[in-house]
Amino acid sequence: MPAFTPPPLPSDDKRWKIVNGTMRKNGFARHALIETLHTVQSSFGYLDDDAIRFVAHSLRVPLSQAYGVVTFYHYFSLKPPGKHTVTICAGTACFIKGSDKLTAAAEKRLGIVPGQTTKDGKISLMAARCVGACSRAPVMLCDGEVMGEVTGEQMLEQLERWAVE
Amino acid sequence: MTIEELEQIAESVRLENEKYDYEVNVCMDLACASQGADKLREALTKAAEASGKKVLIRRTGCMGPCSSGPLVRVDPEEVLYSHVNASHAEKIVDSLGGKAIPELQCDLNEHFDKQVRVVLENAGHIDPEKIDDYISREGYKALLTALIEMTPNGVIHRITESGLRGRGGSGYPTALKWGTVAKAGGDLKYVVCNGDEGDPGAFMDRSVMEGDPHRVIEGMAIAAYAVGASKGFIYVRAEYPVAVARLTTALREARRRGLLGSNICGTTFNFDVEIRLGAGAFVCGEETALLASIEGRRGMPRPRPPYPAVAGLWGKPTLINNVETYANIAPIIRNGGKWFASMGSERSKGSKVFALTGKINHTGLVEVPMGIKLREIIEVIGGGVPDGHTFKAVQTGGPSGGCIPAEMLDIGVSYDGLMKVGSIMGSGGMIVMDDTSCMVNVARFFVEFCMSESCGKCIPCRAGTAQMHTLLTRICTGEGTMEDLELLEELCDTVKSASLCGLGQTSPNPVLSTLKYFRNEYIEHIVHKRCPAGVCNMKAAEEVLA
User: Fold this and answer.
1) Cα distance between residue A136 and residue A147, in whole Å
2) Which CATH class is domain B439-545?
3) CATH architecture of the region B351-432
């Protein structure tokens, strides 16, 4: 059997080298699929068809299996994120302290539901299962930064700031 | 590395610390960090330099009472300051060597008096990124003692003596699990740490992994020695980036010190650990689903037996324990099984860490001896319900658990005690609800969670949770009938008995426990079309009535 040669990098974008590095570190083993997809998402922000195809071919995983893994896990996104992301925690403690109202207010202001991005590509609205900052519920993440004991006004102010940027 | 060398490291840390007259510990856990603990630490460092005093500013893991954060503890006086911000830095440095600052000092004696510190013994005392800090507090001593002085069987025997039960929720005796893996044949075995803390409202494991990562690694290494494994995996949620970073640093440091790798401590024992990231699937907390995820597949559970202890990762015998279980191992080896068994109730030994959140005054992490009354946790340690509201229920065990009403607060917290009242210990989330929470809506919240987290493999869970959600939504919007309630109860029974894994089997618990203790709220919604807590929107019903 001829030795396996991984496919060439999809483009000369340097980020593919980082992706390739994760696979090489794991000896191009099939079980590195999730690890590699994490690297793709942290480098590119999301997973597109080219990326999934490249990773699947490199690790000799059927495309169906790679796509199955991507769609199974909430953390992976098939769409590019907006310029800014507001994530509202929907964990139990946050729910008890009214995070559903925050989500409703954000939906109303942005005209989208969690998981979507505004048409101008500025703001993505996400819902998190629990970020583990329960003692300061309700919690939201503005571009990854945790903010606790959030009020509706605070959140809307932040959204306004981003919208006029 | 030998025990003497460990002691030398500890000694050098002591000598280094003696160069300072004061230690100012700043809690940098998520809750405090989100309130500016970073800036506070910078300001303290600057103020200390300007003052010329010999002050050691140390960042630490979670100190516990998050609602009073950012927290600062000044040693050796052990003065705890709450709600500190960067503007207080100079004042704090000025006060060193003099009188404490009364307006910042917090009186949490009652909060701490009822607690014990086993898993959290280092929390707030060490810098999580410094292995030497951990070693100076007897870190890795248990591992070396086990390797040099004990046989693998001896280690398991000590865990048996301690009576430790799995802290992930089910409470399976840890030593039994270890014994099964140890007896399993084959030269390749794995040790896995379940850090996929998926229960919404629980963050104990995050705090342990972030605040004291070496404790988890040491526990895993001891377990690996006991069962004969040479390779370990820590499965951590990707939502915990700090925990991943801290563990990565800790693993690197442990390898550098020769505490992981080949021929650890000059013995024939080899062990190393890799980190695997979760990707946001609650079902991966279930052990067979977790293993599938480590293997790079969709996290779908499979029927047991065979149990992972016999055929786990890549078909090899695999030991899976929760973060907190591993965190208990080192102190048990150091202090003996009897010491551990002296704490707690008859069938639940030791202590348990809870994440106390919701409508309660002192939110945060608490560690209590097993058997303590629920009332003491809520009223004394937690300081009761704020803003003049009344306590309604406490939810334990996450989406698999139940709601415990006020009249049941005198039960002791133990695996069996909580099970008896229709809840479970779970991983340790404790969410307090007051009279502004509608129990039907809470049940619907959990069922919605299970519905969206169901992996879809078995029908009772996939279809059952969706139907339960539809029925609960009907009740919450005022369209429910008494027949719906009957159907809901029947459905709960089916889903409970016919689902494949724990997620499905326990998903009816929040419904069943609220039906048991708060049935009148369901009836109010159905018969009188009103929500007693004023939470549910009964518009649909109003339209019908009009």
Assistant:
1) 8
2) mainly alpha
3) Roll (3.10)
